Amino acid sequence: MARIRHVFLDRDGTIIKDKHYLADPDGVELFAGAGRALGRMAQAGLSLFLVTNQSGIGRGLYGEREYAACSARLAELLAAHGAAFADELHCPHAPGEGCSCRKPGPGMWEELARRHGLDPAECAMVGDKAADVGFGLGCGFAATILVRTGKGEATAAAMGLDFTQHPVFELGARAADWPHVLAWDLVAASQWVLRHAA
Ligand SMILES: [Mg+2]
């Protein structure tokens, strides 16, 4: 496996608590240790990219302005840990709009790869839903990591997988639609990534 240089991250249920269509910046709440985990990866020279489905915009539940306010709040919280995204994209569409950017579609990867000249063999994806796993696998990333936070437990169960007593468990590439790694949370995921970083 190539060494990992770039980490793609889901937001809700992975970095911050999933508040279900979050529109209020005061509701942005990091998981315990998440800010520090991102800070350690950033300080190790990894570039961090946020890729988030925000169908609440397409559903008319909140607007780009509210999303931007939440992004600014997240950036503020992460800055306290020395972490910042190299770039970030969100898909504003509702399911069924036929876009290519809604995960697991590859649109956000294609745009970020074009902007930054990224090689999927040097990338890892971290997320809590099947859409995140499908995104990482579909884009051909070196590693796709499912976290247990957010919807992670249910996602694993639906795949017939179980989180073990170990914070990080490597499945490898045993099944075409399984993540490569199961991690209790972003802290555990970041420790695995740091062990495989360039
Ligand atoms: Mg999520």
Radius of gyration: 15 Å
CATH architecture: 3-Layer(aba) Sandwich
CATH superfamily: HAD superfamily/HAD-like
Q: Major sheet, described briefly?
A: 7 strands, mixed
Overview of the molecule:
The protein has a seven-stranded mixed beta sheet with strand order 3-2-1-4-5-7-6, with helices on both faces. The protein is 33% helix and 16% strand. It is built from seven helices and seven strands; from the N terminus they run E-H-E-H-H-E-H-E-H-E-H-E-E-H. The chain has one domain (6-195): 3-Layer(aba) Sandwich (Rossmann fold), CATH 3.40.50.1000. Helix 5 (130-138) links the parallel strand 4 and strand 5. Helix 1 runs parallel beside helix 7. The protein has 198 residues and is α/β, with parallel strands linked by helices. The model has no long low-confidence stretch (mean pLDDT 96). The site of magnesium ion has 8 residues, from loops.
Provide tags for this entry:
198 residues, alpha/beta, Rossmann fold, 7-stranded mixed beta sheet, 7 helices, 7 strands, globular, binds magnesium ion
Summarize the structure.
The protein is an alpha/beta fold and 198 residues long. The chain is built from seven helices and seven strands; from the N terminus they run E-H-E-H-H-E-H-E-H-E-H-E-E-H. Magnesium ion is lined by residues 10, 12-14, 127-129, 150.
